[in-house]
Structures are given as C-alpha cells and as structure tokens.
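ok new one. same drill as before - structure tokens go in, u give me an amino acid for every spot. 317 of them this time. try not to just spam alanines like last time pls lmao
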C-alpha cells in the first residue's frame, strides 16, 4: 500500500541572522520576545502545511495554544505588521487571508524537488512577485471568468483606495509631521509604527500630531515617549480629537494656587520616572496590559501608584 503524499516539511532553513533583520527587530521593539517567538511559530505553521497557511480561526487557535501567555489581539497585531512590512505577501493576505512569501516558496520547492509529485500552483507567487490569483479562485468558488474579473477589479480598487487613504493620511500628515519636526532621517520601522498608530486611532492623524506636539512641549524627541503617550490615551479611550484636546487642556490648565514646593514635586516626578522605567519594560513584553493590571501585578502601594500615575500624566496621558 502506497504511503500518503506528504505536503509539509519536517525541517526548514532558518537564517542565523533572522533576529537582526530590520523587520524582526521592529517586531521585537514593539512586542518584545513574544513577538519574536510568534514569528518563529508562524513560520513553523506555514512549513508544516507546505508553503502557505490560511490565516483562519483554526490556525489562530492552534498558534495561541503554542504561544502561552500571548493574547489573540497581540498575535493579530504581529501578523498585520509582518504583512504590512511584506515579510508575508500582502496581495495574497488581503485577497485570501493566506500567509506565504516568495522566500518561503523558494525554500519549500527546493526542499521538495526530489518528491515524485506535480508542482503545485495554488497561491504560488510568480518570479515577478505577482501572486497567482487563479489558484485562489479555483479552490474558493469556481465561477465564470466574468465574475472573477469583477471580483478582482473590486479587490484592486479597494486596495488602491486603501493605499491612497494611508498615503494621504499618514505620509502627508502624521508621519510627515514627525519627519519635519523631530527627525527627517527617521528609521523606516519608526515611521511605519507611527502609521500604525494613525490606523489604530481610525485614521485621525491629528491625534498623533497632538501627541507629537505634547512630546515636544516636554522637551522629548524619542519615539518611546510618543508611544507611551499614545498607549495612555488608548487605555483611557481618548479616541477623538475633541477628547484628546479636553484631556490636554485639563492637563495644562494649572490653577494659580498650585505654588507648592517645586522641589517636592520634582522629587515625586523623579521617583515616578524611575517607576516608569520598569513599567515601560513590562509593556514591552505585555503591550496590552492596562495601568491597573500592572499595579496589581507588581503590588504597588498607594504612594508608588500615585507617583507612577503622576509621571504618566506628565507625559500627556
């Protein structure tokens, strides 16, 4: 009796410098070691199936089981970043929720060239880096060529509209504002992270610009500072320009009777800054952790909680 045909791989090549790749470094910078581990587990899931995996609920559930301590939201964010930065093929993900890439496919076909089986065509990327949509439609829903053309045209138009929106909202406003006001030679993964914040706030560039202005008012010029402010606003559900402006107005509207000892305030602020250093490290590994969850986890007393909260507020949060 013939053995069943094997589709996946038992082993796959992994570049020893993968963690020095700028895309993986960006993942590590935003999500910490959980992000790096998620990348490796995603590659294992792809090669286990062959040269692609469909990003559906079953795949997500399997990955979450293999990544203890990783939330579904964090995993989705990692995948979205990898697609945006084209670690995985963007066209196939947007059209069919498929995770693959030209490099993955080259590795797979090289490893299976001795197998006595016809070369598959489903979701194969051409040498010109164009995905073969023909393979996508055959397996999903075999319809007439006219319907396929309409579907493809719709997808192309949606993709173009999306790209135009992102370019208009991010490149020409929030990202461009950062480049003009902070660092004209900023690293690509920083500008991409700013773009992601724009998307997370529903495309409202003005919110990100307000955070940049607030950062500059405090004499800071680092993305870490901006990220901390935006995380604070996100946790407080400041999801409109009006809410953010009210928050900033109340923060800067200091009554004249607040002429207390500045030295004592400075001491509290410095202590809060020390506490914030540890808080920031924790957020790197658990980006979805709320302020109250952190206080409970670290069992901070009321004095430490107030000092940390006061410092977070001084960042514009």
């Amino acid at each position: 009796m013939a053995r069943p045909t094997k589709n996946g791989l038992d082993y796959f090549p992994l570049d020893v410098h993968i963690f020095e790749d700028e895309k993986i470094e960006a993942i590590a910078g935003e999500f910490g070691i959980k992000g790096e581990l998620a990348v490796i587990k995603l590659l294992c899931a792809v090669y286990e199936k062959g040269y692609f995996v469909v990003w559906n609920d079953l795949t997500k559930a399997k990955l979450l089981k293999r990544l203890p301590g990783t939330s579904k939201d964090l995993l989705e964010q990692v995948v979205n970043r990898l697609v945006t930065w084209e670690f995985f093929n963007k066209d196939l993900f947007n059209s069919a929720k498929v995770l693959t890439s030209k490099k993955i496919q080259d590795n797979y076909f090289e490893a299976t060239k001795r197998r006595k089986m016809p070369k598959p065509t489903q979701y194969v990327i051409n040498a010109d880096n164009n995905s073969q949509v023909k393979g996508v439609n055959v397996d999903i829903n075999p319809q007439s060529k006219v319907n396929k053309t309409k579907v493809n045209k719709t997808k192309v138009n949606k993709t173009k509209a999306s790209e135009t929106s992102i370019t208009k909202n991010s490149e020409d406003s929030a990202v461009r504002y950062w480049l003009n006001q902070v660092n004209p030679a900023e690293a690509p993964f920083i500008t991409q992270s700013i773009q992601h914040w724009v998307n997370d706030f529903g495309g409202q560039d003005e919110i990100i610009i307000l955070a940049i202005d607030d950062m500059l008012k405090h004499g800071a010029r680092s993305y870490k500072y901006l990220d901390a402010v935006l995380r604070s606003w996100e946790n407080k559900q400041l999801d409109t320009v009006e809410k953010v402006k009210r928050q900033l107005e109340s923060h800067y509207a200091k009554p004249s009777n607040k002429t207390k000892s500045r030295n004592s305030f400075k001491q509290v602020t410095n202590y809060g800054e020390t506490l914030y250093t540890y808080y920031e490290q924790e957020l790197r590994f658990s980006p979805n952790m709320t302020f109250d969850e952190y206080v409970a986890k670290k069992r901070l007393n009321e004095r430490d909680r107030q000092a940390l909260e006061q410092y977070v507020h001084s960042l514009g949060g």
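The mean pLDDT is 78. and btw Residues 22-112 form one domain.
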